[in-house]
Amino acid sequence: MTRVKRGTTATKRRRNVLKMTKGYRWGRKSKERSAREAILHAGVHAFHDRRKKKRNFRKLWQIKINAASRANGVSYSVLIHRLKSANITLNRKMLAELAEHHPEAFAAVLNQLPPAKK
């Protein structure tokens, strides 16, 4: 077997690792071993936070809808229940958008709902 000199490949790999850690603090941006570990941890956090993002946005939409619905005299849980019973299939993202930017349209949606049962 012929001899293979790996200098260029290793250098390229090192360079790519250090490019990925640009902006990190202390040795994690300049020392290859620390940088490699930092990349692994960053990947784990990125994966988890992509899932957390969905959770956080849903919470935010619920808060916006609750604020707007209470301004119209209905609580969030009652509003969602009445929407489901009226077969209105607006998702929380769209309801929050209406509540924040188009309050008159949100009020119109509330007017479409059946009265609350006592």
List the main descriptive attributes of the protein structure presented here.
about 120 residues, mainly alpha, c-terminal domain of poly(a) binding protein, 5 helices, about 0% strand
How would you portray this structure in words?
α1 (7-20) runs parallel beside α2 and α2 crosses α4 (92-101). The protein has helices at residues 7-20, 32-71, 76-85, 92-101, 103-111. The chain has one domain: c-terminal domain of poly(a) binding protein (Orthogonal Bundle). The protein is built from 5 helices and no strands. The protein has 118 residues and is mostly helical.
Specify the helix fraction band.
over 70%
Radius of gyration: 26 Å
Poorly predicted segments: none
Terminal-residue CA separation = 86 Å
CATH class: Mainly Alpha
CATH topology-level name: c-terminal domain of poly(a) binding protein
- Beta strands, count: 0
Looking at CATH, the homologous superfamily is Ribosomal protein L20, C-terminal domain
Instruction: Outline the biggest β-sheet.
Output: none
Determine the number of helices (DSSP H or I, runs of at least 4 residues). 5
CATH architect. name: Orthogonal Bundle
